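Ticket #4471: structure export looks truncated?
Reporter: QA, pipeline team
Priority: medium

Steps to reproduce: submit the single chain below to the structure queue and open the exported record.
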Amino acid sequence: MAGGETYDVVVVGSGGGGLVGAYVAASRGLRTLVIEKTDRVGGTTAYSGAGIWYPGSAPLERAGVEEGPADARAYLRSVVADGTRERMQDAYLEAGRRLIDELEQNPWFQSFVHGPVPDYFASAPGATLTGRTVFPPDVPVADLGDRADLVRGSIPRERWGVERGAVLTGGRALIGRALAAFLETGNGTLLLETRLESLVLEGDRVVGVTATSGDEEITFRAARGVLLAAGGFERNAELRAKYHPVPLDGTWSNGCPANTGDALQAGVAVGAATDLLDEAWYAPGLVQPDGLPVFHSGTRGGIWVNGAGERFMNETRPYDQAGHEMVRLHSTTGVSHIPCHWVFDQRTLDRDSFGGDPEQPPNPAWFESGALKKADTLEELAGLIGVPYEALLKTVEEFNGYADSGVDERFHRGESPWDRMSSQIVGFPAGPVMNYPAKASPDLANPLLMPIGTAPFYAATVVLSDIGTKGGLKTDENARVLRADGGAIPGLYAAGNTAAAMSGRAYPGAGTPIGSSLAFAYRAVLDLVGETETTG
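Actual output as written to the record:
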């Protein structure tokens, strides 16, 4: 085993929390090492839109979104409904505002902007129609230079070879900016293809990490502390089978393929407690021609039916809620809801398109692969997807009645602020699949309730995906990793999906996962440099 250098801080993982935490440490003059398992930085953050849920932060104030701290606190208290997490909620709210202020002092982060995405629980006390989500600005590849080549590609680029383009957007913009800011401190070191193996203990204190790079095992010492920010265990089939309520092996996850729980297991090996291991940031996933799903954040037209041919939810509800409902029903009803079938007709296809130019038919690969099925009649379609025809017909007729009246009496589709955003958004909100402007529906009482009756008929497959697991090492409000007895393990911190979520089993608003990752990585650094006493 080779002896490596000693740093002030060692960060494991290069997603949003890892790189921002590393920047915060390095900007304070601490020699900071980031080790990354893969050959690119960014983790699951690079796949995301980079929404960050930060109530009361400066970008919201600049956008004219006014609220008192009590509003967001009341909202979190209601949605999370877990008194054991209240100190973490308060720490999160304070850290988000303070972190944005600090980041925006660095030219690489420029000005974050508010994106009006409604909070996901519209009826909860303190919920807002405008939401509390902020986004980083795009960044030209030319500004980053060679560093742009180190940033993980988007899902379309990694899976289908889509060109990167001249500008990094969303999560890739956040990662590119954080990487540049970190390296330009002069105190930051990045090692790629370096995998965490274990944590180094002296007494009860974590003083470093042991990692492998190629065939070499190296120990890096950390004088101040180790921050674990290496994502969840969504790609670990063994751990998912052990902890999760439905049989998932990680194949359908939209988390980074390298997220197999290395940091989680290293923490457990030194006595860390865990929490929420049965949870994930769920999302329905629309199966593509390559056989794998893509995160699907809303359904503007058509309906979802289960294995019995019956509709079972508001298909446009916030994605994590939709995913959890799929889990609940699949686990309790004896009817298959994973996968389910997205049924729609030609009129819906003409309005919304499917995976391409709305003036052109879908790419033949959709039909050749079986990812999209087509039939001249509903009866034929029922046979293709293996559901009872009479049940499907009854379901469609009921839905068409709701379309005529404009009121979804069973599931209330089109009534919430999130639903209404989906009905008005330019470009169908389903990632790279529905990426062309949707045509207007002036003849409909409710644009999210278009009747199904214009042949031919279509069906796509929707499975249970996720953007990472959300259970992990148990931490306190300063991201210190805790033992089962509640005491902190000296020198060890965790953030992002390596840690159990501040929001418990809930997903309060767009950007909670990334917001939590950044906020608690920030809190970790404040703690190890002795600044937490100023945070309130």
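Status: closed, not a bug. The export was complete when the record was re-opened. Leaving a note from the reviewer for reference: DSSP finds 16 helices and 21 strands in the chain.
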